[in-house]
Design goal:
By secondary structure, the protein is of the alpha/beta class. The protein is built from 15 helices and 17 strands. Helix 3 links the parallel strand 4 and strand 5. It is globular and about 80 Å long.
Length: 466
Amino acid sequence: MTRLAVFCDTSQRRSLERSAGRGLACTFFDARSPVPADLAGFEAVLFEVGPGSTPGRLGAVRKAAGRRPLGGLLVRPDAAKIGRARRLGFDFMVEAWRPGDPLAAAILAHVRASRGPGPGAGGRDVGLALRRTAKRLAILTDIVKTANSILEPRKVIELIMGKIQQLIPSEAWSMLMVDEEKQELAFELALGAKGKDVSSYRVKMGEGVAGWVAQTGKPAIVNDAARDSRFTRKFDSKTQFETRSILCAPLISRGRTIGVVEIINRVGGRFTQTDLDILLTLVEPCAIAIENAMLFQRTEQLTITDDLTKLFNSRYMNLYIGREIKRCKRHGIPLSVIFLDLDGFKGINDQYGHLAGSGTLAEVGSILAEVVRESDILARYGGDEFVVVLPETPPGGALVIAERLRRAIEEHSFLSSQGLSARISASFGIASYPDHALTPEGLIQKADQAMYRVKERDKNGIEVAV
């Protein structure tokens, strides 16, 4: 029976209590309580990474633990939390994504992998090799178990990249996913030096080492980037970063390359075949998990989006407004809704036909998406009616955005791709929380009523609810 000292909060304690008893006995300490002077009665220590995970507190825990392994417990980790845990210098890390995580078997595997080697020089060599192997197996077990239980692609990718960095320390690392329609690679996650600077760039298939790996489906080890014909200096020139070495492997799922993992500038030396073997071992079982998460996300997206305009549908919009109103109540912030109805849309259907009308609605959706802010939510409410939800925006701010939308629609020449030039306008109504209504239904009703006053007056205008 392995005795484990655990510093965590109450909710995580309940999960670990359910996992204990299978070769694992846990004694719990509050994550913020004083650290015992001596943890000699335990074989390892597990510490939940959170606001209380300061270097000073971790130092006190490590001092009390002596030579015993100190592990970090990451509850629903993201890239920032994984990076923070790595900087704190834990001997191992385990993740908890669902109630019941982490399992006793996963904790025990990490504890065994982190124990010191046996006595004697030979024992040290063999012990080190065994520890490395055990660590890889423990991390692989974590990845496979956890990745297949997560249905959010971003979180799966963050998990995988965090684990890769544990085994192959480097200055920068990224995951790029294939955009089959454009035949490009897009940065899904870029961490480390200059990660933010490259995240918006795209790589053509066949371009650079990553593009070559995506195109051929073969991995690559490059230890002198400047002398490799596949290497492109484009990104280094834009970011002022120096790429010296590259380790890159394809993400292959069901016989198809869906992306690549790229590791830049290994810390402490050159990339080796062992590094590549480790990388392939880690990414091969995860490619399917990533694709499954993406397929689930696309399927889920279909239930909340409008087929024609690709905007959100009214069902999702109502749920979103409800959530935002709760947030507004907590923080005392405003929320505005713009309700708009197209003027003369029936005339386009009558003159050019139903297909032209559908094309016009799709164009309106694109125009709205270009004008609104990134934080705003767009929805097709029904027919030729649209709604824009503006978080943290008072009526005055909503008026400014509504005017931009009104002018964009009025000035646009519709159906030009079909050799036509149709003109329409729109009438707008604005309602805000808490000024005009306190519920999603109330806000939509007030904005709709304001819009109809514009319709009755002269159309192509804006009015705020009363």
